[in-house]
Amino acid sequence: MTTKVLVPLLGEGVEEVTVTKWLKHEGDSIKELEPLLEVNTDKVDTEIPAPATGIILKIVAAEGIAARVGQILAIIGQPGESPSEAETTPLSRSGKPAAPAQPAPSLPPARRGKETGFISPVVARIAAEHGLDLSGRRGTGLNGRITRDDALRLVENAGLQPAKPDASLAGTTNTGDRLIPHTLIRRQIAEHMLASHKTSPHVLTVMDADMSRVSAHRSEHRTAFEREGVKLTFTAYFISAIAAALKTYPKTNSSWTESGVLLHGSINVGMATSLGDEGLIVPVIKGADRLSLLAVARAVSDLANRARTRHLLPDEVRGGTFTLTNHGIGGSLLGMPIINQPQCAILGTGAIQKRVVALTDPNGNDAFAVHPMVFLSLVFDHRILDGASADAFLTKVKQTLEAWS
User: Fold this and answer.
1) Are residues 288 and 385 in the same domain?
2) 382 labelled catalytic
3) What is the pLDDT of residue 109?
4) pTM for the model
5) Of 361, 366, 382, 391, which is the active-site residue?
6) Taking 70 as the threshold, does the pLDDT of residue 134 lie above it?
7) Which one of the listed residues 166, 177, 197, 386 is annotated catalytic?
8) Residue 189 covered by a domain
9) 17 and 163 in one domain?
10) Catalytic site residue 371?
């Protein structure tokens, strides 16, 4: 009796995944709970194990294909068994069963030739973009099938450029130019950022904060935190200050809906984390207002480490109500980040830098001093907040940092 490999529910609200890599091929033997394929949702890669021991009779969803929860990804059975036609109908990129004669229009159709063998939609797209001739080639897949990794390796080794440059580049390409194909994560980031910019009227307000007290507190307590196995970073202070400000000004912890402004009952602060050249991901610290500085620092360290090693769970990048992006890590002083929809605002923190500031003592005497300063850039949705309410929120963040004890 055959066993269907279905798209599992990977987290609350996760309705669709994209197949990124098959770890086994048709005809391969597999044991129950052995990793079978990798899928991506919300920029998180997750392995799906085999639900049974047997032979992979059919792979229904090719790499690059979207599939909804409960849909069939593959069929596992015993030698000699054959899955039904309904079970083996391939999925289109939209996650719906595709008619064999009408492949998804955004990708070259899968094909099978006497000289080439089966070519998946992903491999066909790579070949079309880079002018690859796959005739007579054998890959590392089952029966010599050319896999996505084989195609990318051919592109890399040959230093190939696309056969037909994007029409948007007409007149701008030159000899020696090289096109780097978009990764799935980069496409997701691009789509999300463009949609956000089109959705919300973005407004920027900037203040600077004196980090003297925070710096002193960190120097005094970082060793104690390390004994607890926790690295105390400035990010933990920023998140704690944001949580305090969101509690004081709950309208900043909201989302726009056509019926009204939705005030969120929980304060869940996302922190933008770099994945290097691939882009970034935003793991979320849930209930940040209820956590001590130690607990926030522990969460920051844990989530950042697992983000970089691709071990986040889908639920850990969902449900954010506000986002922090620390662009100062790269030396940037001032930035204008894009709102992480459907949130109301995002706070960017620049590099902490010693600067000369003017101070006034209780007697009204002015003096110059060198203090560690940071620019705080708040970008907010002008449909929800006006300048006065946004500045009140940002002032609270500034005051919390400057009065740290």
Assistant:
1) yes
2) yes
3) 40
4) 0.71
5) 382
6) yes
7) 386
8) no
9) no
10) no
